[in-house]
Amino acid sequence: MIEVRNVTRTFGALVAVDDLSFSVADGECVGFLGPNGAGKSTTLRMIAGVFPPTRGRVRVAGFDVVEQSIQARSSLGYFPEHAPYYRELSVEGYLDFVAHARRIARRHRAHAVAQALAACDLGTVRRRLIGQLSKGFRQRVGLAQALLGDPAVLILDEPTSGLDPTQVTEIRELILALRGTRTILFSSHVLTEVSQVAQRVVIIDHGHIIAEDAPGALAQQITGAILLRVRVDATAAAIVAMVAAVPGVRRVEDRGADLEVACADEMAVAALSRQLTQGGFTLLELSRESLSLEEVFLRLVRRSGRGDPG
Amino acid sequence: MIAILRKELTAIFTSLLAWLVIALFVAASGFYFWSNLSFFLLSGGFDLVRGLWQYQFLDMRQLMLTLLPLLTMRLMAEERRLGTLELLWTHPLRDGQIVLGKFLAAMLVVALMLLATLVQPLSLLVAQAEIPWGALAAGYLGLLLLGGAFLACGLLISALTDSQVIAAALSYTLLLLFWAMTWNEYAVGDGVLLQVLVKLSLFDRLYTFVRGGIDVRDVVFFLVFIGVFLTWTVQALGTRRWRGVR
User: Fold this and answer.
1) What is A220-289's CATH number?
2) Global pTM value
3) Domain total of chain B
4) Which one of A50, A57, B45, B129 is CB 3.0 to 4.6 Å from A45, fit for a cystine?
């Protein structure tokens, strides 16, 4: 598990991360979002042990990353943003080096390397030099080194950036496959990906957390309501007044073929469907609309940036 | 540490530069050997057995000064430039292990370079000349220690920059300073300062070895010198880390 407590990191006068606190439970997969320069990579690097926080504490698998640095680092795999690599090593040679560096016991080493190669589908290029590989493959080498030796905690910084759509899908499936067995914290710019993969999202801006919840719940938090799409066997205009009168309905919008209805809670949704049926209409559609994570993200960031309630 | 050592050796021996450095060293020291030998044979009368090797070792010293910074310049600077140092830092390795692994890898290359030049005394066996093995051993030990000191200097400089060119240039500057600092007695006077500088000079420390002797104080000096520079390298890495610059 990962625990970030009141962490501040400054670079000279710049405050990159400001009193940040959050945690990721064992086996949880959390997406870490924020605009560029929000402090995402800085936070992930502190968790991975690249540099210590200026103030505050970070614990990985129960170990303090500063005081029990070696133990903390032994329990995590880290994928850095621009997947750096040694051009002159072969894929297998590099993974073998990482296995040594991670202190994987001699008898498990070959197996660990083979497993990482298989997990990232690198079998066909294992003897090639990393410098000769395409970006997609190099990215996978980066992931393979993070996965090597089955670390309990995975820190992935923009694992899909710069990849083509097929590769993005592959990486996403890889993360999905790991979900549940590892503690995963990953940052991404691709919001659809985050909503598909993460069980919870932490959004930061200017080094502060601005929201933290499940992707779906975040949308509700933003709009303060459950958004519904309602369609009956009549024009939308015919039921606007009736729907608006249902207790708990906050807002109704006539969209021609259907209505967009904002309900305060699920009681209101139930009341709405009862009312329509009793009124002699047949429900053709009653579905939850969710704000895309993209919209949630934009609204939150705009709100935090301007300091006004968006 | 073994992990770093192995990786570094792979990196060194897959790069053209390392082979070039080794080849240049072996070829140039061969050339020096040939000209020194000719000189001694032509002049005659000198103590061939000892004198030849003194000249030869001092020439090899110059070669090491020229070539070793090329070996050390990439050791840290490249890791920093590529960002792989950041990744190394997330592995359960201590900075000391990283530095020592890299130093030992470079040291092995130097040892290999010196080993290759053993061809020179062996070639004299063909001519059935007398070979002072004891004096040779002392000379080679001196060169190995001096090489270690050069590498430790180079490694420290390499940890201070992410440009290999700057690393090489600064290493040359530092080593030349160590060489030249005892040259001008008038500038420093012949008092205490000169005494101190002579004690610190890497190059003056070599003379006993070259003459075929081993002074324990010289051995200790080199080992301490290497230790101090490696410690500074570890500290340089640590400082960068605390400052959060990769």
Assistant:
1) 3.30.70.100
2) 0.81
3) 1
4) A50
